Every structure is written in C-alpha cells, then in structure tokens.
C-alpha cells in the first residue's frame, strides 16, 4: 500500500472546513444535515498564483527591455542630432553668399525633419511590437486562468 502524500495547505483547508461545520452545528437554524463547505484545491490555487506571478515578472522584464531599447534609440538620436548640427553649422559658415546659406539651411532642415520622422517610426514600431507581444501573452494567460477557474468550480460542484 502506497502512503498518500500529505499537503499542508489541503490539510489546513480540511481542518477549517471541519471547524466551520462543527461551529455551525451549535448555531440555531444552521444545523442542516448534508450541508458541507466547498473544498478548495490549494495546490491548484497556488499553481494559478505562481503562473500569475510569472506573468507579472515577465511583463516587468519586457517593460524594462522596451525602456532600455527606447533609451538607446533616444541616445543615438541625440548623438546624431548633435553631430548633424555641428556639420550643418560648419556648412553654413563655409557658404559664401546668402543664397548658398539659405540653400544649405533648407537642405539641413529637410534632413532633420526626415531624421526626426524616422526616429519616431522606430520608437512607435518598437513600442507597438512590445505591446502586441505582451498583450498576446496576457490574453493567452487569461484564457488559461479562466479554464482553470471553470475546472475548479466544476470539481467543487461535482463534490457537492
């Protein structure tokens, strides 16, 4: 004969259930034969909690990765803007006539606008990809959690 493994959490819940039943016997109008407290599967409950904590930790890691990536993009963008400004200033100083300076200025303005738009697209793409990735994981987790909750409810219903 194989000894049944004891689970302290389930033993605690069983003891609580017996205590509630015994205390209800002494209450007027509460002594209902056959009435039992629903039992809880603490192992399954703790497993759901563990998965929730894993998802939370994963979401925090994912958020930190996005923050690091956006920070790196921003640092690169800032470095590039400063370098471009230095070059553009030099080009303005090298221009001989007002028309040449105006042309250099217009060319540089277009370059800055293109660079700024490209940077914005990179950050938006990075953010969208991260949100979609994490959103899919959360959605999958929610479906699994709902299924587990339904299974637990069915077990309680079948027992009572």
Description:
- The protein is an all-alpha fold.
- It has a domain at 53-160.
- It is built from three helices and no strands.
- The longest helix has 62 residues, at 98-159.
- The protein is rod-shaped and about 105 Å long.
- The two termini are 29 Å apart.
- The mean pLDDT is 79.
Offer a few descriptive terms:
160 residues, mainly alpha, rod-shaped
Largest sheet: none
- H/E element sequence: HHH
Unreliable residue stretches: none
Range of helix content? over 70%
Q: Name the structural class.
A: mainly alpha
Tally of separate helices: 3
Fraction in beta strands = under 5%
Radius of gyration, in angstroms, nearest whole number: 32 Å
Globular, elongated, flat, extended or rod-shaped: what is the shape? Answer: rod-shaped
Q: What's the count of strands?
A: 0
List the quaternary state of the chains: single chain
Distance between the termini: 29 Å
> Taking all residues together, what is the mean pLDDT?
79
Map the helices and strands.
Layout: H1 8-25, H2 42-94, H3 98-159
TL;DR of this structure?
The protein is an all-alpha fold. The chain has a domain at 53-160. The protein contains 3 helices and no strands.
């Amino acid at each position: 004969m194989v000894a049944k493994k004891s689970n302290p959490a389930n033993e605690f819940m069983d003891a609580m259930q017996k205590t509630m039943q015994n205390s209800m016997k002494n209450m007027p109008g509460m002594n209902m034969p056959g009435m039992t407290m629903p039992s809880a599967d603490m192992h399954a409950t703790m497993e759901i909690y563990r998965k929730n904590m894993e998802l939370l930790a994963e979401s925090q890691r994912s958020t930190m990765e996005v923050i690091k990536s956006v920070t790196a993009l921003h640092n690169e963008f800032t470095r590039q803007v400063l370098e471009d400004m230095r070059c553009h200033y030099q080009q303005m100083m090298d221009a001989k006539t007002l028309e040449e300076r105006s042309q250099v200025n217009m060319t540089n303005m277009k370059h800055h606008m293109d660079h700024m738009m490209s940077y914005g697209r990179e950050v938006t793409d990075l953010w969208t990809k991260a949100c979609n990735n994490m959103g899919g994981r959360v959605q999958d987790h929610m479906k699994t959690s709902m299924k587990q909750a339904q299974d637990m409810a069915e077990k309680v219903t079948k027992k009572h």
